[in-house]
Design brief:
By secondary structure, this protein is an alpha+beta fold. It contains 2 helices and 4 strands, in the order ββααββ. A 4-stranded mixed sheet has the order 1-3-4-2, covered by helices on one side. The relative contact order is 0.32.
Length: about 100
């Protein structure tokens, strides 16, 4: 299945718009990861700990989005948009929402 942020796919004319599909994931960022992320914040540089969690959340949400689209009989999802939020009492949870339009060629 093709998943893309673009509204069309070159060489693949869209015959039918099935509708909006969404997927959400919320991951906890534990205490140890927070400590290492805090060091990076203090000293500067990239935080591999948080980057890994972002990638994990994004990949899981895209897998879920693809499954939802397949269940609806789609060939692709176009116009995908990612929204990241920090949630929880102390900002200890990472939420990602992915949405797009399921289509048939």
């Amino acid at each position: 299945m093709i998943l893309t942020t673009t509204p069309t796919i070159e060489g693949k004319p869209i015959r039918e718009y099935i509708g909006v599909v969404t997927a959400e994931n919320v991951l906890g960022i534990n205490f140890v990861k927070d400590i290492f992320g805090g060091f990076t914040d203090f000293f500067g540089g990239r935080s591999n700990t948080y980057e890994a969690e972002l990638k994990k959340a994004r990949d899981l949400a895209l897998q879920e989005l693809e499954e939802v689209a397949k269940q609806k009989g789609a060939d692709a999802v176009v116009g995908i948009d990612f929204d990241f939020e920090v949630v929880g009492a102390r900002g200890s949870m990472l939420m990602i929402n992915v949405s797009g339009t399921a289509v048939k060629f």
